[in-house]
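Try it yourself: sequence plus adenosine monophosphate, in.
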Amino acid sequence: MRSVEEYLAHVLGQLAPMPGFDVPLAEAQGCLLANDVVAPLDLPPWDNSSMDGYAVRMADVTGASPEFPAELDVIDDIAAGYVSGRVIKPGTCARIMTGAPVPEGTEAIVAVEQTDRGTRRVKILAEPAEGQYIRARGSDVATGQHLLPAGTELGSAQIGMLAAIGIARVEVHPRPRVVVISTGSELVEAGSPLGPGQIYESNSYMLAAAAREAGAVAYRVGMVHDDEQAVLAVVEEQTTRADLIITSGGVSAGAYDVVKGVLSQLGTVEFEGIKMNPGKPQGFGFIGGDFSSGTPIFTLPGNPVSSYVSFEVFVRPAIRRLRGVTPERRAISQATISADLTSPGGKTQFARGWVVPSGAYGLPEVKPVGGASSHLLAGLAQSNCFIVVPEDVTEIKAGEQVDIMRFGAAS
Ligand code: AMP
Ligand code: MG
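Structure, out:
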């Protein structure tokens, strides 16, 4: 049996970032740049004023003060968006607004607060420093400058930057389209009445939400009965739109574990047990081809907690690999455990926990939540991390240091 790390490396080794794709800027949020962005223009594109005030020559305002103001003719009124054709000559100035191009001859801007706000003649009440309040052309961005390297994640600030240099479409590694298929003849869609022996289907909601948290575009496909041909038909149909398929259920040793039954015959999906708890039965491979041409598929166990742990530990890194994001894995950090915990030997255990920051110093404190069984969804929903217990550890005492892995919206 492979360890968690070995299996994850095995899976990631078969996946690569999706090729670059040209998208409208507004849809690029959260995606990674496929190419370097080189500035096509200067920002500011011309010298402009950073204040509402007056564009002046230095010689005219030397020594200006409230007692001895300099008095100048106002020869133009320059709003943002307007280019003045006038030149500032001795004895003259122009009123100018923030963001407007400074006229020729300007040596400084005097803020409106340091004048009498005149519109034909103006009194200047203070001597400016040379160049004051003039934002030089290219002082933010210079034409040809390498602004953002390939691989940059486009957050709000980067999107603002790209818009500012006039980029309407940008080549990014797209968000993978992830299709989630649940299998099980006992499953009923939330909102419908439950019959005898039936339960509400929850994994597809959970996994689709987790896929979105990982940066994918996720689609839920209604549940499929435990029927080999039905499962195969749905999986094959979804390859046309999916960049990644996730199934849940039907991979254990039961008589109706049809996912394993039908997909193992294809020869491109491998099923194996992993040294972990929960989440032992895993399947990964490709549908409709091999790793170069097919659609990658994860077949996760059906128990909700097993499904969730499997997603967080294997599928989330795979989605991040397709997006080109590194590191792919969740961060492991340390916490002090507040109660005893036991663990089966020989397997990495992902126990549920609630971690809270400690005071100013010291590690955060984590409390185990719920029991070890993989059907305990309530405990999962009341947790914010996994307590990761290594294969060779079977007992942990309160007060000891443990590894934790935050999940959900945490990064
Ligand atoms: P399986 O892996 O198909 O043997 O399912 C294991 C357990 O998880 C069974 O108790 C199932 O009823 C339950 N289960 C499987 N799929 C789902 C699902 N999509 N939503 C909720 N529970 C499920
Ligand atoms: Mg089942």
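One thing you can check immediately is this: The chain has a mean pLDDT of 96.
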